[in-house]
Design a protein that fits this description.
Elements lengths: L2 H16 L6 H13 L7 H50 L13 H4 L33
Helix pairs in contact: 1-2
């Protein structure tokens, strides 16, 4: 057996282990040696089914672990959200109308009252009269 043949057997054995075709390194080495020498072992249908079931089990296990991790993360986010809501509510309770400030004697600057607007504002639905609005401003009777 040459060096190249041993290297082929070793690399093939590693591949067999990697793809879960062999259960142990000794089994992988035996299968790889038989394959390189031309006496490939016959794989029956039962071995293929067992290998597929094993792969399916590994995938399901990893999915289950991921779901458990996501559930824990969601629970943590819910807890954080409730604590934030409680903090917001505590701020709302603290905010109460402030008491009126104590009146001090007026200074000269405070004694001047603000200027009042002379014209009272009238909303559009207010007390308009016909003389307040000219009809000519709304309709044009001239040529186009």
């Amino acid at each position: 057996m040459g060096v190249e043949e041993v290297q082929k057997i070793n690399s093939l054995a590693k591949e067999l282990l990697k793809h879960h075709i062999a259960s142990s390194s000794e089994d992988a080495y035996v299968q790889a040696e038989l394959m390189v020498k031309g006496e490939a072992p016959k794989v029956n249908r039962e071995d293929e089914v067992n290998r597929d079931l094993r792969m399916l089990g590994l995938k399901l296990n990893s999915m289950y672990n991921e779901i458990v991790a996501l559930q824990a993360e969601i629970k943590g986010l819910k807890d954080e959200m409730t604590s934030i809501k409680k903090k917001i509510e505590s701020f709302r309770v603290v905010e109460q109308p402030r008491a009126e400030p104590v009146h001090q004697p007026p200074n000269e600057q405070q004694a001047i009252p603000p200027a009042k607007t002379e014209q009272a504002s009238r909303p559009r639905t207010g007390d308009y009269q016909e003389k307040d609005v000219q009809i000519e401003k709304f309709f044009y009777y001239g040529k186009k």
